[in-house]
Amino acid sequence: MALKENDLIWFRPLWRRVAVVVFLGLWLGWEILFSGDQFWVILVGAALAYALYTFFYAFPKSETENEQIAPPRPADGENRQDP
């Protein structure tokens, strides 16, 4: 499942992707060491694996061309210029 355009923009800074992965890693460590509930270990481990793959392997390396929002066009469709 690919990230949507809004998600790509929000996760563009590397620190946000690293923060999510570190949080999931700490949570997985907590579940393994202190909780021991197999359901949560599998669930958080799968989320961590998905985040690692999505954020660091499959994440687009360059910014997309349409990342900048174009100015709105007039409602009537005429090609007018600002004075």
Fraction of residues in H or I helices: 55-70%
Low-confidence stretches: none
What oligomeric assembly is this protein in? single chain
Report the sheet with the most strands, covering strand number, pairing sense and barrel closure. none
Distance between the termini: 46 Å
| Molecular shape | elongated
| Overall average residue pLDDT | 80
The string of secondary-structure elements, in order, is HHH
Strand content range:
under 5%
Secondary-structure class: mainly alpha
How many distinct helices?
A: 3
How many beta strands in the DSSP annotation? Answer: 0
What Rg, in angstroms, do the CA atoms define?
Answer: 20 Å
Topology:
Blueprint: H1 5-10, H2 14-35, H3 38-57
Helix pairs in contact: 2-3
